[in-house]
Amino acid sequence: MLNFEKKKVLVLAPHTDDGELGCGGTIAKLIENGNDVYCAAFSACQQSVLKDFPSDILITEVKAAAKILGIKPENLFLYDFQVRTFGYKRQEILDKLIELKNKLNPDVVFIPSASDLHQDHSTIANEGLRAFKQCTVLSYEIPWNNISFNTSCFVQLEQRHLDAKVRAILEYKSQAHRSYVNGDFIKSLASVRGVQVGVTYAETFDVVRLIL
């Protein structure tokens, strides 16, 4: 089981909701245990927001979700890369990541899986590992984008951590049309991952690099 205390943790989210979806329960637990958690989201996906909502609605929603999980406003970094173009902006993204590394010097970094099918996710995964290769790096699970995923690390969640994750995700009302922005789905996945390691709820991660 992952048991960080008094560590500096950085979550890299390609889009504003990815951090909550991939490791929202773990974020809540880490903050509860006294860790300093930061989140960097690289796109608010303004080009793909439904016309029923303001184009910048995801900026409002990510701030509300972060507050629920306990992320301090000053620990949330938002960038304005256009969705589905990250592959063309690799160097700019890497520059931002190196700036974060120099500013925060994190102990642990969460990234998407390098095998994630979404082009923006795989870019953040690859450039994130390049920038933070001297840190412990864990990939979080986005099951609808992962053809395969190595479940080599599990974080046990209590009900309160899972509840916080669900509440945070449900703040994304502009994304409610997506099947995975659903409390029942989130709870079911946490239950499946918990069963795998003999607990009630869990989130799973792939260990990319572990520094002890």
Corresponding CATH architecture? 3-Layer(aba) Sandwich
Q: Give the overall shape.
A: globular
Estimated radius of gyration: 16 Å
Strand segment count: 7
Helix content bin: 25-40%
The count of domains is 1
What is the ordering of alpha helices and beta strands? EHEHEHEHEEHHE
Strand order of the largest sheet: 3-2-1-4-5-7-6
Uncertain spans: none
Structural class, judged by helices and strands?
alpha/beta
Tell me the CATH topology.
Rossmann fold
Q: pLDDT average, as an integer?
A: 96
Q: State the CATH class.
A: Alpha Beta
CATH superfamily: LmbE-like
Q: How would a crystallographer describe the biggest sheet?
A: 7 strands, mixed
Describe this structure in words.
This protein is an alpha/beta fold. It has one domain: LmbE-like (Rossmann fold), CATH 3.40.50. The chain is built from 6 helices and 7 strands. It has helices at about 20-30, 55-70, 90-105, 120-130, 160-170, 185-195; strands spanning about 10-15, 35-40, 75-80, 110, 135-140, 155, 200-210. It has a 7-stranded mixed beta sheet with strand order 3-2-1-4-5-7-6. α4 links the parallel β4 and β5 (about 135-140). α2 (about 55-70) packs antiparallel against α5. It is globular and about 40 Å long.
Give keywords.
212 residues, alpha/beta, Rossmann fold, seven-stranded mixed β-sheet, 39% helix, globular
What is the compact description of this entry?
The chain is α/β, with parallel strands linked by helices and 212 residues long. The protein has helices at 18-32, 57-69, 90-104, 119-131, 159-170, 183-196; strands spanning 8-13, 36-41, 76-78, 108-111, 136-140, 153-157, 201-209.
